[in-house]
Specification:
Order of helices and strands of chain B: HHEHEHEHHEEEHEHEHHEEHH
Mean pLDDT of chain A: 97
Number of domains of chain A: 2
Helix content of chain B: 25-40%
CATH superfamily of chain B: Thiamin diphosphate (ThDP)-binding fold, Pyr/PP domains
Strand order of the largest sheet of chain A: 3-2-4-5-7-6-13
Strand content of chain B: 5-15%
CATH architecture of the largest domain in chain A: 3-Layer(aba) Sandwich
Largest sheet of chain A: 7 strands, mixed
Strand order of the largest sheet of chain B: 2-1-3-4-8-7-9-10
Number of strands of chain B: 10
Order of helices and strands of chain A: EHEHEHEHHEHEHEEHEHEEHEEHEHEHEE
Radius of gyration of chain B: 19 Å
Helix content of chain A: 25-40%
Radius of gyration of chain A: 21 Å
CATH superfamily of the largest domain in chain A: Thiamin diphosphate (ThDP)-binding fold, Pyr/PP domains
CATH architecture of chain B: 3-Layer(aba) Sandwich
Oligomer: heterodimer
Largest interface: A-B, 45 and 48 residues
CATH class of chain B: Alpha Beta
Low-confidence stretches of chain A: none
Number of helices of chain B: 12
Chain lengths: ~400, ~325
C-alpha cells in the first residue's frame, strides 16, 4: 500500500505541483512520461513520490513523448488508470498517438502545461499546443490557476473514466504563469480525493483472458465513418457527465466549475472571451472598468472540447461587442476561438459585433491595461453600431499596428 | 508453460488454435507460419502488440479479427512501447490486486516487420529494451516495406530491387548494406537475442520458448520469405527459406546476455549465394554481366560474416 501524505488544508503550490499531487492522489496505475519544459516538474515531483513510497503504480520514463503516449495507450488497454504530462514540442510529437488514444476510447489523463511551438524555439507559455490538440478527440479542460489545475485533474479522471464517456482528457494550464507561480491551493485529503475519483472500472481490458479483445483494428470506407461519428457523439454527449462531475465536486469542496465561466455577464454590454491566465487578467480589467461605468464582463470556456457552443452562445448573445482573444498564431486565418465563438453567435437574433485579438505569443505579457483598452475599443464598436477597427488585430506586438479585414456591416 | 511436445510438426502446428487461418496475408507468406509457431510454443496467455504492416492489416480488419488472444495495434512504430505499457499495467495491477485472474500466466509479445523494426520503430524498440520490460519482440524480416508495395528498408540487402531502390539501366538496386540489427540488439545487453527461420522450425520453436521464458526484454529476428516482393512462386516459401539458411544469407544463431554466441544451424552443404539469388525475381538483374561483381561482393560478405560468427562462438565473447 502506498504511504499517505499529510497535507495542510491550504498549501502553497505552483500549478505543476498541484497537478502532480492530483496524479498521486488518484493512485494512477501507470504513468508513462517524458520530461519537457515547463511541465518537467510534474514528472519530477511524481518521481519523488515514487521514490518515497507514496505511489503503488508503475512509473515508466520512456525515451520520447511519442513513446509516452504509446505506453499510455498500451497500459490503458490493459485495464487501469493511466496518466502523463507534457508541453509544446512534446505534445506535437505525440499528436499521432493522441488520435489513436481517443479512437480506441481509452480514458487517459494528460496534464498539459501550455507552451509555444517552434520555430523560433520558445519555452514560454502560449496556447499553440492546446490548439494543436483540438481535433484530436480528447476532452480538454482549461485551468486558469494552480487551484484549478489541481481540482480539474481530479475531475478529469472521473469524467474520462465514466463508462458513458470513455475518452481521454487533457487538463491545460499556462506555462510558467500557472505552472511556476506558487499560489494558495485548498487541498483534499488523500482519502477524500481518492474517494471522489473512485476505483478504476476496467472495460474491454487486455488482461481479462476469458474475453480476448482486439484493439486498433483497421477500417476503410466501409466502417471508418461510423466509428468517427460515434466518437464525436460520445465527445458531444460527455457534456452531461462533465456537469455531473463538476456538481459532485462542488458538493465536496464548495468550488464550482461550469463548462463556460461567466464573470459580470448579467448586464454586460461588452465582453472579452479568453482562455488560461488571461481570464483572470480580463476579470480584473472588467472590475476596474465597471467602476468607470463600462458594463464589461468576461466569458471563458472551461471546457475547450467538447466546445460549449450552446453555453457560449447563451452567455454572450445579449452583449453588443465582443473581443475574442487567441493566444496562438492563427497562420493565415482568424483565431480558432474567434471562429468558434462567432459561429455560436451567428445563430442568435442580435449577432453581437465580434473582433479577434492575437496576443501573448511565446509568453509576451498581457496586462490589465491592455485588457481595459480592448474593452474600451469594444465599447466604441458598440456605440458606433459597427466594428471601427480591423476585425483581427495583434495586441502587444512590436512595430506598426497589425490588423486584417474590415467589416461590411453597419458602416 | 512451454509446450514440451515439439517433436512432431503436425501435432505441434495444431496444439493451440489462437491465430485463425482466415486472414488476408498473401498465399505463401511466411508471416503466419512464424506467428502460429510463436503462439503454439506456449500455453500461457498472450498479450500481443503489432506494428502497422502486412501482419496487422491482414489480421484485424473490422469487424473481423484473426487473434484469439489480447491484441493491440497503435501505429507503425510503437508496438514495443504498447506492449511495454501493458506489461507495466500488469505489474501495477498484480501488486494492487486488481487483476481478474491474478494467477493466470501471461507473456507479452510484440511483432513488427523489418520496416517498423529496423527503421521507423527502432527508437521505440531500443527504449523498451533499455528499460528492461519483460517482453519478447519478434521481427518478421521480409527485407522490404511489403505492405505498401515493396519499398527499400534498412533491412533490404545489397543488390535487391525494390520500388524505391530500383534496378535499372544505371543501377543494380539497393547500394547499401543490410543493417545488422541482431548485433545492435545484443549490444543493448538484452538477455536473449536470436536470428531464427521458419524452415528450421524446431530451433525456431525452442528459440521462441527461450525468449518467452527469459525474464526481461528479448529480441528475435525471423526470416520471412515474401512471395510477392521477392518474386517467387507461393508454393516455394520453405524452399526459398532453405536456400537462405543453407547459403548462410541468413545464419541461424543466438546471443545470450550480449556476449555468448551460439550457432544453431550449420548447413551440411553450404550452397553458393548465387543459388539463393537466382531463385528470386528481385535479384534477376544481378545476373547481367555488368552486375556480376555484386554477386561476388555479396558472397564475400556472407563468407566474412560466417567466419566472424564462428570466431565469436569459439571465443565465447
Amino acid at each position: 500500500m502506498a504511504e499517505k501524505m499529510e497535507l495542510k488544508e491550504v498549501e502553497v503550490w505552483d500549478g505543476n505541483y498541484a497537478a502532480s499531487q492530483a496524479l498521486r492522489q488518484a493512485q494512477v496505475d501507470v504513468v508513462a512520461a517524458y520530461p519537457i519544459t515547463p511541465s518537467t516538474p510534474i514528472v519530477e515531483n511524481y518521481g519523488a513520490y515514487v521514490a518515497n513510497g507514496y505511489v503503488d503504480g508503475e512509473f515508466v520514463m520512456v525515451e520520447s513523448e511519442h513513446a509516452a503516449m504509446s505506453g499510455c495507450v498500451g497500459a490503458a488497454a490493459a485495464g487501469g488508470r493511466v496518466a502523463t504530462a507534457t508541453s509544446s514540442q512534446g505534445f506535437a510529437l505525440m499528436v499521432e498517438v493522441l488520435y489513436q488514444a481517443s479512437g480506441m476510447r481509452l480514458p487517459i489523463v494528460m496534464t498539459v502545461v501550455n507552451r509555444a511551438l517552434a520555430s523560433p524555439l520558445n519555452v514560454r507559455g502560449d496556447h499553440s499546443d492546446m490548439y494543436l490538440g483540438r481535433d484530436s478527440g480528447w476532452i480538454q479542460l482549461d485551468a486558469f490557476n494552480a487551484q484549478e489545475a489541481y481540482d480539474l485533474t481530479l475531475c478529469a479522471f472521473k469524467i474520462g473514466e465514466d463508462l458513458r464517456v470513455r475518452l481521454p482528457v487533457m487538463v491545460h494550464q499556462d506555462g510558467f504563469l500557472t505552472s511556476h507561480t506558487a499560489q494558495n491551493v485548498h487541498t483534499l485529503s488523500d482519502d477524500e480525493a481518492y474517494k471522489f475519483v473512485g476505483d478504476y472500472k476496467p472495460h474491454e481490458e487486455m488482461l481479462d483472458f476469458s474475453k480476448p479483445v482486439t484493439y486498433g483494428a483497421q477500417t476503410e470506407e466501409d466502417w471508418h465513418f461510423e466509428h468517427k461519428a460515434k466518437q464525436h457523439k460520445a465527445l458531444i454527449e460527455s457534456r452531461e457527465v462533465i456537469e455531473e462531475v463538476f456538481a459532485e465536486f462542488k458538493k465536496l469542496t464548495g468550488r464550482e466549475y461550469k463548462r463556460v465561466e461567466s464573470y459580470m455577464m448579467d448586464d454586460a454590454e461588452v465582453a472579452i472571451v479568453a482562455l488560461g491566465t488571461t481570464v483572470e487578467t480580463a476579470r480584473v480589467a472588467a472590475q476596474q472598468l465597471r467602476e468607470e461605468g463600462v458594463k464589461a464582463g468576461v466569458v471563458a470556456p472551461r471546457v475547450f472540447r467538447p466546445f460549449p457552443f450552446d453555453d457560449i452562445r447563451d452567455a454572450l448573445e445579449n452583449t453588443k461587442a465582443i473581443a475574442v482573444l487567441d493566444r496562438s498564431a492563427p497562420m493565415g486565418a482568424m483565431g480558432a476561438l474567434f471562429n468558434e465563438v462567432s459561429a455560436a453567435l451567428y445563430t442568435t437574433p442580435n449577432r453581437p459585433l465580434v473582433t479577434n485579438f492575437i496576443y501573448g505569443l511565446g509568453g509576451r505579457d498581457f496586462s490589465v491595461e491592455e485588457a481595459k483598452r480592448i474593452f474600451k475599443e469594444q465599447k466604441a464598436h458598440a456605440d458606433a453600431g459597427y466594428i471601427t477597427t480591423p476585425i483581427q488585430q495583434f495586441s502587444g506586438v512590436r512595430g506598426p499596428k497589425l490588423g486584417f479585414f474590415e467589416t461590411k456591416r453597419g458602416k | 508453460m512451454a509446450i514440451t511436445n515439439i517433436k512432431n510438426l503436425k501435432e505441434f502446428s495444431t496444439v493451440n488454435e489462437r491465430f485463425e487461418g482466415a486472414h488476408l496475408l498473401c498465399p505463401g507468406c511466411a508471416h503466419s507460419m512464424i506467428v502460429r509457431e510463436l503462439m503454439n510454443a506456449t500455453d500461457d496467455n498472450l498479450v500481443i502488440a503489432t506494428n502497422t504492416g502486412c501482419l496487422e492489416v491482414s489480421t484485424a480488419v473490422y469487424p473481423y479479427t484473426s487473434w484469439d488472444t489480447s491484441w493491440i495495434h497503435i501505429g507503425f512504430e510503437n508496438a514495443a512501447t504498447a506492449v511495454a505499457g501493458a506489461e507495466a499495467m500488469y505489474k501495477a495491477r498484480k501488486r494492487k490486486g486488481t487483476l481478474k485472474d491474478p494467477d493466470a500466466p501471461v507473456k507479452f509479445v510484440a511483432f513488427g516487420g523489418d520496416g517498423s523494426t529496423y527503421d521507423i520503430g527502432f527508437q521505440w524498440l531500443s527504449g523498451a529494451v533499455e528499460r528492461g520490460h519483460d517482453f519478447t519482440y519478434i521481427c518478421l524480416d521480409n527485407e522490404n516495406y511489403a505492405n505498401t508495395g515493396g519499398q527499400r528498408s534498412s533491412a533490404t540487402p545489397t543488390g535487391a530491387h525494390t520500388s524505391t531502390a530500383q534496378a535499372g539501366r544505371v543501377s543494380y538496386g539497393k547500394k547499401q548494406k543490410k543493417k545488422d540489427l541482431v548485433a545492435i540488439m545484443a549490444a543493448h545487453g538484452a538477455p536473449y537475442v536470436a536470428q531464427l527461420s521458419p524452415n528450421k522450425w524446431k530451433s525456431m520453436a525452442k528459440g521462441f520458448q527461450k525468449a518467452l521464458e527469459t525474464e526481461g526484454p528479448c529480441f528475435i529476428n525471423t526470416v520471412s520469405a515474401c512471395t510477392t516482393e521477392w518474386k517467387f512462386d507461393p508454393k516455394d516459401t520453405i524452399h526459398i527459406t532453405d536456400l537462405a539458411t543453407d547459403s548462410l544469407m541468413f545464419p541461424i544463431y543466438e546471443i545470450i546476455n550480449g556476449t555468448e554466441l551460439n550457432i544453431l544451424y550449420r548447413p551440411k552443404n553450404i550452397i553458393p549465394v548465387e543459388e539463393y539469388l537466382a531463385a528470386q525475381g528481385r535479384y534477376k538483374h544481378l545476373f547481367k554481366p555488368e552486375n556480376r561483381h555484386i554477386i561476388e561482393q555479396i558472397q564475400k560478405e556472407v563468407d566474412e560474416k560466417w567466419e566472424y560468427l564462428q570466431r565469436r562462438e569459439e571465443a565465447r565473447v
